[in-house]
Amino acid sequence: MIKETAIFRKENVLMEKNQKIFWGWYIVGGAFLVMAINYGARYCFGVFLKPMAAEFGLSRSVISMAAAINMLVYSFCAIFVGRMLDRIAPRWIITAGALIAATGYVLTGFVHTPLGLYISYGLMVGLGSAGMGVVACSSSVGKWFVKKRGLALGIASMGISLGTALLTPLSGYIVIMFNWRFGLIALSFIMLFIGVFVSQTLMRKTNPEAYGLLPDGDKTSVSLQSIFPAAVHKISTMTLFKDSRFWTLAVCQGLAVMISMSVFVHQVAYATDNGINKMAAASSLAAVSITGFMGQFLFGWITDRIKDPKYASFIGISFMLAGTLLLINVESILQLYLAALVYGFGYGSLAPMLPLLIADRFGRQVMGSIYGLLTFFIGTGGAVGPVLGGFIYDHFGSYHYLWLINIVVLIVIAIAFLTLKKGKQYA
Hints:
The chain has helices spanning 2-18, 23-42, 45-56, 60-85, 90-108, 114-131, 134-142, 149-177, 180-202, 224-227, 237-241, 244-273, 278-303, 310-327, 333-347, 350-362, 367-396, 400-417. It is mostly helical.
């Protein structure tokens, strides 16, 4: 114990001497890049939807099932990712995720049957994405900050929008110039290179206390108890299941992700059905991401300055509602982009607000476990979105009723967020 203490003290001295920037900001940068490639690639699925359906001669609901399976696998695996993250450094979780996801994208580029699509994209990409997702990245960021947590999580989650803004038009261009298979293989190489490199260089550390540091880079002296915590913080699943705050977050966020996934998977097809050209339609997802990028920063920043983050969530859902109201009446490129920009700003609140609400309601040290369990329920909602959109289109010949359902659900979510109570923190 004395020897270990000396080693940690020596490492802490070296860190303070050689590192002018608090290591938490390196974690923020790593999370930004990992989420950029992970979600940027996943949200490209809508670009491939119509070409896949046309080549395979299948309905959109059958193809959309791959996205649903992807979400279910992603959400189930997030439970284990969260629990592992409360015990080990994120570098190995993210590295494994990048390797598995990259392999899944490559294999998806060679599939010829729905079953192959479900296994490669649904199972493998879903599994790999869980290791590179918001549970691993946002929970890691949240453990390094308290006073600046909103800003840090806002900046990190901006990677989601930047990745989508860059990769969706790139994928659309590749599909037009080559084919959808080449586009998926290109995504796999981007995923592999950036995912492994970033995780091994920037995501190497667990939490500040383990290295004799304090959250936010505070200079107050750190006791041995904070360097060597007495025990790993744990919270039982049954305790959470008895907490109404957990279910409020699970239902609200699950429904919000259901809506966002229905938009990302079907908006491009909806736009082209309305006579908008393919490149402009694919770029509408980038438009969502442009204002989403702004929203992720602003919603994160504002929560450090308001009494309760639930009010920021209410505002974000309200913008999503306004964007959906515009989307239902789209007849031109200008209207499509306006709807996407308004919707995107509200969508930008989803990624930073959930970890902020978890930390605010339950405590910083159990973020991984709670976030992982919440993601299971959230992902289940996300899996419904793509299939619901495909089912409605196949039966009604349009997406009109999908957008109506989204409008009603968003109103319910906005009201429910206002009922979220403070309550007890577990760590």
